[in-house]
Design a protein that fits this description.
By secondary structure, this protein is of the alpha+beta class. It has a domain of 321 residues: Uncharacterised protein PF07063, DUF1338 (2,3-Dihydroxybiphenyl 1,2-Dioxygenase, domain 1). The protein has 19 helices and twelve strands. The strands form four sheets. It has a five-stranded mixed beta sheet. Strands 5-8-9 form a three-stranded mixed beta sheet. A hairpin with a 7-residue loop joins strand 2 and strand 3. Helix 1 runs parallel beside helix 8, helix 4 crosses helix 18 and helix 12 runs antiparallel to helix 13.
Length: 465
């Protein structure tokens, strides 16, 4: 709480993340089973590999590991997206990155709302991947108009949460009572409602165009469709899910298994078929498939040079596979991935030397003890060689469009459209959002630079290069 009596956005975000997790666990009991598996796996990994636990202690991630979550929602209109931005701003979350999923056959473009400063991320690393439906990608004009008219009738926010948004924006914060009320009211936007806003016939028309269009348009709000915990070993999770009665998707999305993980690896259990009420029905005779359980393993954030190499190797793998990765070709896909990614260095020192990843730098006890020495290293590389400075990779806080599309597609079925020819339109997305998205690479570079400057200040040296 600050001098004005306001609760910090980091604390509001942490409260909301806990409330969201509790709600989702009550709605999707299998999610609780998944959380238990992740907690058990993470404990075992750190017991088997103490160096991983040590790395997490250096970076401070050990404190946030158990509470780390990312959610995903899909909204239908520009007004909904702009209000979502205002809602997440109360929690200190800003839109980071632009993702076009059209080329993968998913008619949305997206951003990720998250905290941006490393201290805020350590306090609560909650993220929400937020997608906006691109109505222009519905090729049937009559169906496009139907979808627009349905979306125009709904209000996904409670009247009270809108009042609290106005209060926050006028005052610059929320006090204890208002912060708690805000969490409860905001949660209603993400809740699952079984009553659809359409008839069964309308639902089927939307569904036949694209399952995700039906998911966005047919219901009262953008129900949270997954809430992802972070694991330290996604391959153990993938192997362990069947033993817990969980059916996993066939392929882990992202890079292959490595000694030094990079970017993001994701898997999920298949989407649940849930009963719903359509307009004109007296019972929950209909069904809808949307919500699933996702798990992620996060690795090093890559520089533009590192991302270019990653994208090239992934593209080469998918070109060689010449098909969408799935159950029928999972083994071959994994073999190709392993083969192609041998070109990507698998040591943090090599990645650092080649400028492929971002790192945080820390002064060691040896460095502290040597501060009074007349002769001592004065460059970053020399300080590292002398043991005065230690480095660890910056964790990747964001998402991968190909992986996101792969998760979506695995839950949409094989008959989903292969791609949309209309290209990305980031300018339209910014207009709908009523703000530009932040560049994630600039954020990582700034964090890395702050850690280097902090090392220089601690060692009583001029800014390091």
């Amino acid at each position: 709480m600050n001098d004005q009596g306001f609760i910090s956005p980091d604390e509001i975000r942490a409260r909301f993340s806990r409330a969201m997790s509790d709600m989702y666990k009550s709605e999707v009991p299998l999610y609780g089973t998944l959380l238990d598996l992740v907690a058990e796996t993470n404990k075992k990994v750190m017991e088997d590999a103490p160096e991983i636990e040590e790395q997490l202690r250096w970076t401070g991630e050990i404190r946030r590991l158990a509470m780390e979550r990312h959610g995903a929602i899909r909204v239908g209109t520009a007004e909904e997206l702009a209000t979502i931005r205002r809602l997440f701003a109360v929690m200190g979350m800003q839109p980071v990155g632009y993702y076009d999923l059209g080329p993968a056959g998913v008619p949305v473009h997206s951003t990720a709302f998250r905290a941006v400063h490393e201290s805020s991320l350590q306090a609560s690393p909650f993220r929400v991947f937020t997608s906006l439906l691109r109505l222009e990608l519905i090729d049937n004009p009559e169906l496009r108009q139907l979808a627009a008219s349905i979306l125009a009738k709904r209000n996904i926010f409670t009247p009270r949460v809108k009042e609290l948004l106005a209060t926050f924006e006028a005052q610059g914060g929320l006090d204890e009572a208002h912060a708690n009320e805000f969490v409860n009211e905001a949660l209603e936007t993400f809740r699952w409602y079984t009553q659809a806003m359409v008839t069964a016939a309308e639902y089927n028309r939307l569904h036949d165009q694209h399952r995700l269009i039906a998911d966005i348009v047919a219901f009262r709000g953008p129900h949270i469709n997954h809430l992802t915990p972070r694991t330290l070993d996604i391959d153990r999770i993938q192997a362990g899910m069947p033993r817990c009665g969980i059916t996993s998707k066939a392929v882990v999305e992202g890079p292959p298994r490595r000694h030094c993980p990079i970017l993001l690896r994701q898997t999920s259990f298949k989407a649940l078929q849930e009963q719903v009420f359509f307009i004109g029905q007296d019972s929950a005779a209909g069904s809808h498939t949307a919500r699933f359980g996702e798990i992620e393993q996060r690795g090093a954030a890559l520089t533009p040079k590192g991302r270019a190499l990653y994208d090239r190797l992934l593209s080469a793998t998918r070109t060689e596979l010449n098909a969408f990765p799935g159950e029928h070709n999972a083994e071959r896909y994994n073999d190709l991935l392993e083969k192609n990614f041998q070109e990507f260095p698998d040591s943090y020192e090599e990645m650092r030397q080649q400028g492929l990843a971002y790192f945080s730098y820390f002064v060691t006890e040896t460095g502290i003890a040597a501060r009074s020495n007349v002769i001592r290293p004065h460059t970053l590389d020399d300080l590292i060689k002398a043991g005065h400075v230690h480095f660890e990779p910056l964790v990747y806080e964001d998402f991968l469009p190909v992986s996101a599309a792969g998760i979506f597609q695995s839950n949409l079925g094989d008959n989903a459209q292969g791609s949309y020819e209309i290209t990305a339109n980031q300018a339209d997305f910014h207009t709908a959002l009523q703000a530009p998205v932040l560049n994630e690479l600039e954020l990582y570079a700034a964090t890395q630079r702050r850690s280097i400057l902090e090392c220089a200040a601690t060692l009583h040296l001029p800014p390091l290069v």
